[in-house]
Specification:
The structure is a single chain. With 728 residues, the chain is of the alpha+beta class. It contains 21 helices and 20 strands. The strands form 6 sheets. Strands 10, 11, 12, 13, 14, 15, 16, 17 and 18 form a 9-stranded mixed sheet that branches. Strand 14, helix 15 and strand 15 form a beta-alpha-beta unit. Helix 8 packs antiparallel against helix 19 and helix 17 packs across helix 18. The longest helix is centred in the last third of the chain and has 24 residues. About 27% of the residues have low confidence.
Length: 728
């Protein structure tokens, strides 16, 4: 039993001036050694003299004796960590509780080494005032840069962290144990932090990480927690193989070899196979409606009908009634010279694109059954005649129509608002319509289509490789970008702010300066949030750009936005040009509305091919497309005017018919005769000449021209030239 009080022992153990000076030297030595040890790769324990080692071992044996032989039992104070768990006791938390009367020299000698040899297992049950606990073996302190104790020493350096020590009550709980082998630093702020150095740094909690260059990197997760966005671009840029196109931009070899004039460039898109289907279906329905009175419609009449529609668009008569076009006072003479108003109405009423008999069965499976065959044949020819450039735009086109249609759409942002929606893929530079698809709505009785935008882009980009796809926020998504990269295609487009693939931190625009940009990246995708004006931002996604470059020139926008603005107008520009000279007429039949749009797009694509093959055509003219359409319309109606037997009643139209027919007659009179199998008098071939039958045989004048009526060979002397009006 303890006969002396704790206060009496404290009086005996109070340090002298020499001991205080000795303690300060030891603390200075330990701090210096501790900072050096944290920066060394090989952690070596401090050197201990031989006499100190013997003293340490001896004292350790004394502490492990039985309780009745121990002179100073130990009290262990538990340490409460950050996780509210009890860790093994530290040596600085072992407090002396002397019992009995010993000499001052023994107490001092014991204090020199008790802090490092505190594995006491005293289990005394006699002292009820002091709590005794077994001292377990401490775990190795985890974390880089922490010094490990020398072998055989039970005292260890505590790991740095926010854990706080709870000393036992009493003045002795704050007194460190002196001794040359003690490594516990003096109490103070320096004892709570490890020595500075790269090995002691830990990753900061939250979205920041330490990059290899030393700058902080913010990591943000998307709303659906599936995509990790970084504030720093990856070292490896996106695969540039996706931007190497294998085809030569411009007209294909098929278009080059089959284009001789303006009319032939248009017939590339409306070939004989499509015309035959239209003629077959139209004549079948004409016989059903008119019976024997119906006159079979041929290709010349069909071309004349196409030409009249195109010329109506050239003269800006879109939406104008047909009566005004054929009017003798306000109309154009070429319409009355081509065909009568009655014939035009009959063709517009009877023209068909499929067989009426099996249409109901096909309509159950396909809402576009009334024009499906012609549409598919026409769309398949578009990519065969022209190769787009490196940038392709995908968007929708709304064909105005307010009649009855099972898939009519309402888009309030469009000028027409009501109409037939067509997905379009156009070259961003020339606006050539490369691929088209009519949107027929969701199937009857089925749920709406999911991921429609991604499906449309993948369908419209079939056959492309190495191109960049530009689209708006209806189509753009991270999943679409990954699918396009698999096809060696890149993507640039705006993205909706409610997309679950975006990080919420990128959408905030409050307190951001105007014209500021914020970028985040994945391994192959870039996102930019740009503030064009106060309180508003736009978000764009790109798999083409690998870093956040800002243009040096005004208005200093990100390169992603500049490229998007330069390539996003392919479809809109094509729609604008088509509507400027559209051949659409008033009708209540939606298949005819689609066919009118086919004619408009075919005429524009023919113009693109013609200008690519003939860049010097009408170089000084400004309205080249208008002149092209005018020449195309006249070339289509000319054969019908040349063979017309009934002369129109108006003087202007009659003069035009006589002039065209006279030019044709004059051309026939000056054309060399062709060899004919019938008629014995024609024995020469095309490369031979024959004596003029009017001249005297003595003159022996050879000629290859014949009379237009009697077919006699005549020379230039006996040829009479007439004006076109006098030919008939």
């Amino acid at each position: 039993m303890c006969e002396r009080t704790i206060a009496e022992y404290e009086m005996d153990l109070s340090p002298t001036k020499e001991e205080k000076a000795r303690q300060q030297l030891l603390d200075t030595y330990y701090r210096k050694h501790h900072q050096i040890g944290l920066h060394t790769d090989a952690q070596q324990p401090p050197h201990i003299k031989e006499e100190e080692e013997e003293m340490w071992i001896t004292q350790e044996k004394e502490c492990l004796r039985k309780q009745e032989e121990a002179e100073f039992p130990l009290t262990v104070v538990s340490v409460k960590t950050e996780d509210h768990e009890d860790k093994p006791p530290e040596s600085s938390q072992l407090h002396h509780s002397p019992k009995g009367e010993d000499s001052e020299e023994d107490v001092s000698e014991f204090e020199d080494h008790i802090s490092e040899n505190s594995e006491s297992d005293s289990d005394s049950e006699e002292d009820d005032e002091i709590e005794h606990q077994p001292v377990p073996k401490q775990r190795r302190a985890t974390g880089p840069g922490l010094q490990q104790p020398a072998p055989g020493l039970s005292r260890q350096q505590p790991a740095p962290g926010p854990s706080r020590q709870q000393p036992a009550p009493g003045p002795s709980s704050q007194q460190p144990a002196p001794g040359p082998s003690s490594r516990q630093p003096a109490p103070g702020p320096s004892s709570q932090q490890p020595a500075p150095g790269p090995s002691s740094q830990q990753p900061a909690p939250g979205p920041e990480r330490a990059s290899q260059h030393g700058a902080s990197e913010e990591i943000w997760m998307s709303k659906n927690s599936e995509i990790e966005w970084s504030s720093r671009p990856r070292k490896e840029p996106p695969c540039k193989a996706a931007n190497v196109i294998s085809m030569q931009p411009g007209p294909t070899l098929m278009a080059v070899t089959h284009t001789q004039d303006i009319k032939s460039s248009f017939e590339l898109f409306i070939p004989d196979s499509i015309q035959e289907i239209i003629l077959d279906c139209t004549n079948l329905d004409g016989r059903r409606v008119f019976g024997e009175r119906w006159k079979e419609m041929d290709q010349t009449q069909l071309h004349a009908y196409f030409g009249v529609l195109i010329l109506a668009g050239v003269f800006r008569s879109k939406g104008e009634s047909a009566e005004s076009l054929w009017d003798a006072q306000t109309g154009r003479e070429i319409f009355r010279a081509t065909m009568s108003l009655e014939n035009f109405h009959i063709i517009s009423r009877i023209i068909r694109f499929d067989h009426r008999d099996d249409r109901p069965a096909r309509r159950q499976r396909d809402k576009l059954a009334a024009i499906r065959t012609v549409w598919d044949k026409w769309v398949r020819r578009l990519p065969l005649l022209y190769n787009p450039g490196p940038n392709v735009t995908i968007d929708e086109q709304l064909v105005p129509f307010r009649g009855r249609c099972p898939f009519r759409q309402y888009i309030p942002s469009k000028p027409a608002k009501y109409g037939i929606k067509i997905w379009a893929a156009c070259d961003a530079t020339s606006s050539y319509a490369w691929n088209l698809q009519v949107y027929t709505g969701k199937p009857d009785g089925e749920a709406p289509e999911k991921n429609q935008g991604m499906r449309v882009v993948l369908d419209m980009s079939q056959g492309l490789s190495g191109h960049n796809i530009t689209c708006d926020n209806f189509f753009t998504s991270h999943k679409l970008g990954q699918e396009l990269l698999k096809r060696k295609l890149t993507m640039v487009g705006t993205i909706r702010k409610n997309s679950s693939e975006l990080p919420p931190q990128l959408l905030t625009s409050k307190n951001r300066p105007v014209k500021s940009s914020k970028f985040v990246y994945t391994a192959d995708t870039s996102l930019v949030s740009y503030v064009p004006k106060k309180g508003k931002n736009v978000v764009l996604m790109s798999t083409l750009h690998g870093d956040g470059r800002i243009c040096d020139q005004e208005p200093h926008k990100p390169e992603i936005i500049m490229d998007y603005n330069a390539t996003t107008g392919g479809v809109d520009n094509m729609d604008k040009l088509v509507m400027a000279y559209s051949c659409k007429q008033r009708t209540l039949r939606w298949p005819l509305v689609i066919f009118f749009d086919m004619l408009d797009i075919s005429a524009y694509n023919a113009f693109v091919i013609w200008m690519a093959l003939n860049p010097e055509w009408k170089r000084t003219k400004l309205q080249k497309r208008r002149l092209f359409l005018e020449d195309l319309g006249k070339a289509l109606v000319r054969p019908q005017i040349e063979r017309r037997k009934h002369i129109p009643g108006t003087p202007a139209s009659a003069a035009m018919v006589r002039r065209i027919q006279g030019e044709n007659a004059g051309a026939l009179s000056t054309q060399p005769t062709e060899p004919q199998s019938a008629g014995p008098e024609v024995v020469n071939t095309s490369n031979k000449k024959k004596r003029c039958e009017v001249c005297r045989p003595k003159l022996d004048r050879k000629t290859q021209y014949t009379c237009i009526k009697c077919k006699k060979y005549i020379c230039n002397t006996h040829t009479v030239k007439l004006c076109p009006s006098c030919v008939v």
